[in-house]
Amino acid sequence: MSIQDISTLLWFTQRHTATIPGTIDRVKSPIPTAGALACVRTVVLGAHEEAWIYDAAEHRSEVLSAPVDMCDQIRTSASEFFNVGEGLLLLFFAYRPFVTKYYESPDSLVLREAGVLLGTLALIAEALEFSFCPLGATAENWLVNLLGGSEKVIIPAGAAVVGRR
């Protein structure tokens, strides 16, 4: 997949379209979210590349400091579930400190938001003639390794593979 391909997919599914007036953290986005927080973030892993995280507010990406060999190891682990091939591996998570500012027990809300995101990604991927396969809630250890956090900081919210047909 090209950078333009993944950019288009994320534009239609995750970009922040506006900040809700009178708030700092509440945003409008193309999908329903937990309290307008749009708290689910996406890490993208390509083949033999660095990982990057999508910034929905700016519609851009930031390279993570994780080594390429760690990224390849995660892709290899994902291939045990699904033949990733040349597809991109998408890992979903939320920052626990951010969400717990608003919700006492945010895990269920994060997982529901991630489910809506996965469904929307699948629909948009089909419209763009991409292949798409959700991998379920398999990303916990992968995210902790990539982001250098723990469950105290990160709420894992699943994974998926997207690619060209």
Brief rundown of the structure:
By secondary structure, the chain is α+β, with helices and mostly antiparallel strands. The protein has helices spanning 3-13, 68-78, 96-100, 107-127, 140-147; strands at 18-19, 27-28, 41-45, 51-55, 60-63, 88-95, 130-136, 154-164.
What does this protein look like?
By secondary structure, this protein is an alpha+beta fold. It has one domain (3-164): NADH Oxidase (3-Layer(aba) Sandwich). The chain has 5 helices and 8 strands, in the order αβββββαβααβαβ. The protein has helices at residues 3-13, 68-78, 96-100, 107-127, 140-147; strands at residues 18-19, 27-28, 41-45, 51-55, 60-63, 88-95, 130-136, 154-164. Strands 5-4-3-6-8-7 form a 6-stranded antiparallel beta sheet, with helices on both faces. The protein has a two-stranded antiparallel ribbon with strand order 1-2. A hairpin with a 7-residue loop joins β1 (18-19) and β2 (27-28). α1 (3-13) packs across α4 (107-127). The longest helix has 21 residues, at 107-127. The radius of gyration is 15 Å and the shape is globular. The termini are close together. The mean pLDDT is 87.
